[in-house]
Amino acid sequence: MTRQEPARPEAHGGQVRAIMRHFPNAPRPFIDLSTGINPQTYPMTMPSLQTFARLPEADEEDDLREAAAAAYGAVDPDMVATGPGSQSLISLLPRLITASSACILGPTYSGHAIAWQQSGATVRNVVDSDDLARQSTEPGTVCIVCNPNNPDGRILPAAMLREFADRCASHGNHLVVDEAFTDFDGESLIPALPHPGLIVLRSFGKTYGLPGIRLGFLLSSPETAKRTRDLVGAWPVGSLALAAGRQALRDGRWLNLARQTASRAKDRLTALLEATDLRHEGHARLFTLVRTDAAPDLWIHLCRHGIATRRFSTQPDALRLGLPGDEEAWARLDHALRAWHAKSP
C-alpha cells in the first residue's frame, strides 16, 4: 500500500529521507534540490585522526577568525564570532540585541521569526522596503533582512541597506543582514563594519557545499562580536569545522571557479524551466523560485521521480529548486519536468 504524501511542508530544506519515506517507489538515489546549497563540494584535506583526540586549540580558533575576516572583508578578526552554523547564531540574536519588536522583510527564512517569537518579542513581517524603513525608527526594534533573500532571490542594493543601518543606529536600533548567499550574489555590507547598528551573518556550508560541517559567522563591532563569543562559550566549533574553514576561506581561486560554474548551472536550470513553461523568479545563483498554482502537485510529481524540492506553507504557489550536482541529476530533472509539461493542460 502506497503511503500518503506529507500533509505539511517541512520547516526547512533537506530531510530528504524523511520526505521520501512517503514515496517508496521513487527512484534512488534521491536528489536533494530543496536547500539552495552549492552542489560543488570543497575538496578539503581531512585532518589526521589525532586531531580529533584533543580539544581545539585557541590559536586554531583565532586563525579561523583571521581567515574569515580576510575572506569577508572585515578589517579586524575581533569583529568575527564563529558558531556551529549560522542558525545557531540566529538563535542567539535575542540575547545580543535588546528589542521588544522584530521587523522582518519577508517572506523569508523562517528561523529569524522563530528566534524572536521564542524570546517574547513582537514579530512584524513586511513585504516592502519602505515599510521596513518606517519600522526602523520605532523604539526597541530590530530590523532583519536576508540579502539575497531566501526563497525568492530578491537582492537589495548595499547602499540602501547601509541607509537602513544608519537609520536604525540613529534611533538606538539594529539592522541584522543575513548574507547566507552573498558569496555568490549581491554586495556585502561587511565593509561598513564596525557600525553601531549593524550585524551581519554569513554561512559557510552553503557556499562550500559542506552543510554538515556546521560552521557560520557573525560579524559586527568588536564589542558585539566579543559578547557573541562569550555567549557561545569555549570551543564554539569542532576540529573538522576548524580545518574546513581555515582551508576553504583562503582558497579564493576555488570560490571564483565555483561562482562561474553556478552561473552556468543557473542558466541551464532557468532554460529548462522556460522550456517546460514554468514561471520563475529571483537573481540568486544557487536556487530559483518557481511560481505556479499547481505547486503542490508539482512537488508531489517531482518526489515521485526521486527529486526533493522546497515547498512553503505560507506561499502555496511557490516551489524552490536548487542546482543539480551532476549529469545524472540533470537528466532526471529534465525527464521529470518534461513529463510534467506533457501532462499539463
Describe the protein's topology.
Blueprint: H1 16-20, E1 31-32, H2 58-72, E2 80-83, H3 86-96, E3 101-105, H4 110-118, E4 122-126, H5 129-135, E5 141-146, H6 158-170, E6 174-178, E7 198-203, H7 205-208, E8 216-219, H8 222-232, H9 239-248, H10 252-275, E9 279-281, E10 287-291, H11 295-304, E11 307-308, E12 310-312, E13 315-322, H12 327-343
Parallel strand pairs: 1-11, 3-4, 3-5, 5-6, 6-7
Antiparallel strand pairs: 2-8, 7-8, 9-10, 10-13, 12-13
Can you describe what's shown?
The chain is α/β, with parallel strands linked by helices. The chain has two domains: 16-32 and 253-343, Aspartate Aminotransferase, domain 1 (Alpha-Beta Complex), CATH 3.90.1150; 56-250, 3-Layer(aba) Sandwich (Aspartate Aminotransferase, domain 2), CATH 3.40.640.10. It has twelve helices and 13 strands. Strand 12 (310-312) and strand 13 (315-322) form a beta hairpin. Helix 2 packs parallel to helix 9, helix 3 (86-96) runs parallel beside helix 4 and helix 3 packs across helix 8. The mean pLDDT is 94. Residues 50-328 form the Aminotransferase class I/classII large domain.
Radius of gyration (CA) equals: 20 Å
Strand content: 15-25%
Number of structural units classed as domains: 2
Q: How does CATH name the architecture of the largest domain?
A: 3-Layer(aba) Sandwich
Q: Count of helical segments?
A: 12
Question: What is the makeup of the main sheet?
Answer: 7 strands, mixed
Class of secondary structure makeup: alpha/beta
Order of helices and strands: HEHEHEHEHEHEEHEHHHEEHEEEH
By DSSP, the count of extended strands is 13
Q: What general form does the structure show?
A: globular
Low-confidence stretches: none
Output the CATH homologous superfamily of the largest domain: Type I PLP-dependent aspartate aminotransferase-like (Major domain)
Helix content class: 25-40%
CATH topology of the largest domain: Aspartate Aminotransferase, domain 2
CATH class of the largest domain: Alpha Beta
What do the pLDDT scores average to? Answer: 94
Note the quaternary state here.
single chain
Distance between the termini: 29 Å
GO molecular function, one term: threonine-phosphate decarboxylase activity
InterPro entries: Aminotransferase_I/II_large (IPR004839), CobD (IPR005860), NHTrfase_class1_PyrdxlP-BS (IPR004838), PyrdxlP-dep_Trfase (IPR015424), PyrdxlP-dep_Trfase_major (IPR015421), PyrdxlP-dep_Trfase_small (IPR015422)
Pfam family, one: Aminotran_1_2
Enzyme class: lyase
